[in-house]
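Re: How this chain folds, sequence and tokenised backbone to follow
Notation: Tokens come from a learned vocabulary of local backbone shapes, not from coordinates.
Start of record: The labelled sequence and token lines come straight after this line.
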Amino acid sequence: MLIFDTFEDSEFHSQASKGLNSLVRWYLPDIVFHEFVWFFKSRAIEQSKVRLKIEEYLTNEKSLFSTCTPDDIRFAMDLKNYANYNDHVILSFAKRLELPLFTFDEDLERVARKLAVRIARK
């Protein structure tokens, strides 16, 4: 979500920005920020620019940064597809806190629905 919001030329930029703006709070598990940084790193984007963008999200009045728990990790490891570990940690976070999941990832959304995790409107 943060990647789509960051890049104005991304496929879902408008939907991501409108969706984030419509939410009262952004519950952001730590792994979301790790994935965000890894995305920038894989594209060799200058670290100082990445740091500014990270700070923008961390200090936004809507942001609520949260760490994942050991149970989130266990949950993610118990699901069948190890390749989607990061997504499953995020899914566990949403399930544990009974929060809707805001994603454009269709596979993640499908698993979320199977596990009765609400999906935020986009």
